[in-house]
Amino acid sequence: MSDPALPLSLMNRDRFLALFYEPERFDIHAKTVLHLHVLRVDGGDFAIKPLFKELVNNSISYVLSRQNLEKLTSDLSRMGEFFRKTQMQFKAPDPNAGEGGELLLYSFLEGHLGAPKILSKMELKTSPEHYVHGTDGVHLLEVAEGDYQLIFGESKMYGDAGVVGASVERGIKAAFTSMGKVQEDDFDFDTWLVESELLKESLDPAKVELLATILLPPASGGVQITKSNAFGVFIGFELDVTEYPFAEYTATQIEEHLRAIALTAITDQIDTVKSEIQKRGLGGYQFHIYAVPFLKRNVNGTVRGIEDVRIDLASELSGKNLRPPKKQVTK
Fold this sequence. Notes:
Helices cover 42% and strands 20% of the residues. The chain has 331 residues and is α/β, with parallel strands linked by helices. Strands 1, 2, 5, 6, 7, 8 and 9 form a seven-stranded mixed beta sheet that branches. Strand 3 (41-42) and strand 4 (45-46) form a beta hairpin. Helix 2 (48-63) crosses helix 5 (99-113), helix 2 packs across helix 11 and helix 7 (188-201) runs antiparallel to helix 8 (205-215).
């Protein structure tokens, strides 16, 4: 394959992927693939803290354009300046915090699929408390020499909302609702953003010209390039284990149980994916779907689930912890 139009921006994809067991792959259609990634289990819970640590690392290359990332890596004395800039782009935590899911999608599309981001949308924010309109990221995948997919991202992290086992279906339907709107708008907004921001992602004039050609392949003459629009999807879902008797099982049995119920939760919703694609007329597009479970469990006398994970992750990324401080226990 020829020299890539863009390099990956994620600086250590292996370290991110090592947080998960070997993924389960579902070939749903000829152009629809779902990967279930389950975090490693430690002490009856998924390894959330290591995940947060790695996502904070990934946030730098996610937020910064390649131009600014180059400035950082060529002068590490500016690390504090660029890390602070990265933190400031994330919203303060709130119940609808979604930027952690977008970062997870970026990490999977670059780390697992090998599709480099083509747009640093976070740098476009005029205020950290605003979201950037459009899809949750735009990536470029070279399938074969001269054959590209422009991948538009959607991420959803949903809890069960009072109905045990409902979160996978809720997340899938919400993601496809958003993707249906992107198709209805002919992908125009994000394609325009990409075209206007190309110079921030490559300083090589030949690469900029190639990227522009990929976005609008010539009908005849010139370099033979084909480009198709595709979707990258992240679904974060909830596994309710509030009634599971952890104390009665070994660490190996707990791990096997959590991986099994995660697999069942996804398997049960494959028909939902098929139905949404058919209902919304999206069968002509390629889908790269990533699913990750999070636990709803008892923690020190309270029940914590995926909503808490979203807020905690937003706190880590933004450096703004809005949870009330823990009370000091007097001995």
